Amino acid sequence: MIKIGESWGIEMDDTCVTILQRKIVLTGENEGDEVWRPMWYYADLESAFHSLVDRDIQNQITNRFPMLIERIAELKKEIHDALEKHSKEINEYESVMHKPMIPIRKNR
Asked: Which domain, by its residues, includes 25?
């Protein structure tokens, strides 16, 4: 799994890309345990990343505008860092899927 920040993760296989959300079990036998719940499924990494950014922005929209701009920059950095950390895994996935990945741009 590729972690994106503290709350999100991405898993890839030969059929799809899955966005996972980190949850803490609140009740029951596993109370307090961390679990990663599948949230959305995509055909490729680019669609998954776009969706993750869009959904995060929608969740942040109720806050003040400067906080939104800051979060966009943070999320882009988290995605960039995760992609750099897992570049070998991503390249292997991309070679299997025969779809070139968009080059990573440096933060501005």
From this structure: 2-97
Please tell me the total count of domains within the chain.
1
Beta strands in the chain (DSSP E): 2-4, 8-12, 17-24, 34-42
Instruction: Convert the pLDDT of each residue in 28-61 to its tens digit.
Output: 898 889 999 999 999 988 899 989 988 887 777 7
Q: What is the pLDDT of residue 98?
A: 63
Task: State percent of the chain over pLDDT 70.
Answer: 85
Is 38 contained in some domain? yes
Q: Which residue has the tokens 């991503």?
A: 90
Please report whether residue 68 resides in a domain.
Answer: yes
Residue 107 lies in a domain: no
